[in-house]
Amino acid sequence: MLNPKLKLNPKVFSEDVEQMPIRKGFGQGLVLAGVKNKNVVGLCADLTESTTMNLFAEKFPDRFVQVGVAEQNLATVASGMAAMGKIPFCSSYAMFSPGRNWEQIRTTIAYNDRKVIIVGSHSGISVGPDGGTHQALEDIGLMRMMPNMDVISPCDAIEAQKATVALAESSRPAYLRLVREKTPIITTEETPFEFGKSEIYWLPELGIAQVGIIVTGGLMHKALLAARDLEKEGIKTKVMNLAFVKPIDTEAIILLAKETGAIVTVEEHQIAGGVGSAVAEVLAQNVAVPIEFVGVKDVFGQSGTPEELIEHYGMGKNSIKKAVKIALARK
Amino acid sequence: MLTENKIKELEIHANDIRKSIISMLLEAKSGHTAGPLGMTDIFTLFYFEILKHDPNNPQWEERDRVVLSNGHICPVLYATMAHRGYFPVEELQTLRKFGSRLQGHPHREYLPFVDTSSGPLGSGLSQAAGMALADRMDNGINTRRFVYCFLSDGELNEGNAWEAVMLAGKYRLRNLIAVIDRNNIQIEGDTENVMPLEPLADKWRAFNWHVIEVSGHDFTALYQAVEEAQAVHEKPTVIIAHTIPGKGVKAFERDYKWHGKAPNKEEAEMAIKELQVNRPS
């Protein structure tokens, strides 16, 4: 059942569950952050509407910088603004930022300890018809291995909004990973959101969970659907929302592994280097349990609808269910 | 205008800074020689005459900002800062050593006196542009604070540099002043052979910058160039400073092989002797 303590969206399993692109939560959150703090500024590389930064640009035209199609400049100009006390959010597609400007982010933001928030929209395979060039499947890995850099991958638009506001108040540089397509609203305004903390969104009504499913980003809804199906089939699971890939909630991950004895990770990202790897790093050092990885398996994407692609590359509901059963069998 | 006495003072400082550069590179056994010696006169002029700064209060909020884009010439930055009173001159001997504040390329975490960490080329000008933009947001178009960016000619091969040139032109950042070390060399040879930059001044003009060309070793001309740059309205300024790489030591001058290596003991002794002989009295 949905964790009753978290005040999740009661309509999450309805046909008519509200849907909104995760990136839009960022756009709304940035306006809120901008109202709260006049030092918040926005920079964009000619994708203001796509990344929904236009909401901020319209409200605060004097605090918005259009850098053109120049992602290296996007990151480095933001670093300079941070040096003068601004809190820059810079947005583009994840493939271009942090994809193209990784070294600039490393040297001038992370190494240089300048608090800039890199906002990578259009991450994952669900970018869809634009095809493989535009589907960032390596960005979590690229960013989480960078010292001094936090990585946040919200599960819905509401969480993205909260994450944006929280990042404006945090003291470190961060990468905020967003998804293009509309996804179901899973949380509510009342759902707790604490920096660096994960939450258990689904748990068995009775008894102990047999498998822990750790999810980041827009696949949360599919994981919840899988968990509900599995329960009907007699397999008890817990589903964790791991929005904070870094700092990672080590304690909660260990606890979940100890309780369930088997883990499945779910992400719209390459398995190598992503959240699966991050979870495996924690568990290998602390509690050795079988882990199954749901994600992209060392291939590039292609054109298609988001649903087609998620199914084809093995990240849909049935793939998650299958991974849970394999993990269970390996216990 | 700089008085004759002032110019002499600057020449003495520059001579001492050059000797420090040689001696720290010798001690470090690695590092870059040509660029730092070539930029010594410019750094001396800025740190002793031009910058609004306070060595006793390096974080003074109202200070001008300095971005050294080509971080590999940091021996000249460190030596000039030490001679200007930011830290003891003796500390220069720790360059590139384990635990030193004087990292091989500047790192703000180790040396908070610098406004940015740098090393990978082509990214300094855009940071400086970001600083200038932010300052203008806070203090308006007539802000009296300037952001100075020192960059090399070789690093203008980088696309990021031209992205910054474009942006500064677009936003008419009059509080941004770039100084190019036009020494015509880069690691693998002459800039015009590796990747031609000329007509360099025309390129910057085409991007809406005010361009001044000047000798990088003439204090009076440099000082006037900076005054002119500060007076320009509605445009950023680039000072293309023609410098002699390795300046001050005849055997090192204009030889690209000195771009990325440190002198050995004999070479260093010879260089320091030559500088000592030429020290104005």
Structural notes for this entry:
The complex is a heterodimer of chains A (331) and B (281). Chain A is of the alpha/beta class. In chain A, 36% of the residues lie in helices and 19% in strands. In chain A, the strands form 3 sheets. Chain A has a 7-stranded mixed beta sheet with strand order 3-2-4-5-7-6-12, with helices on both faces. In chain A, strands 9-11-10-13-14 form a 5-stranded mixed beta sheet, with helices on both faces. A two-stranded antiparallel ribbon of chain A has the order 1-8. In chain A, strand 13, helix 9 and strand 14 form a beta-alpha-beta unit. Chain A is globular. Chain A starts with 18 loop residues before the first strand and ends with a helix. With 281 residues, chain B is α/β, with parallel strands linked by helices. Chain B has one domain: 3-Layer(aba) Sandwich (Rossmann fold), CATH 3.40.50.970. In chain B, 42% of the residues lie in helices and 12% in strands. In chain B, the strands form 2 sheets. Chain B has a 5-stranded parallel beta sheet, sandwiched between helices. In chain B, strands 4-5 form a two-stranded antiparallel ribbon. In chain B, strand 6, helix 9 and strand 7 form a beta-alpha-beta unit. In chain B, helix 1 crosses helix 3, helix 1 crosses helix 4 and helix 1 runs antiparallel to helix 10. The model of chain B has no long low-confidence stretch (mean pLDDT 97). Classes of the chains: A alpha/beta (331), B alpha/beta (281). At the A-B interface, helix 3 and helix 4 of A face helix 5 and helix 6 of B.
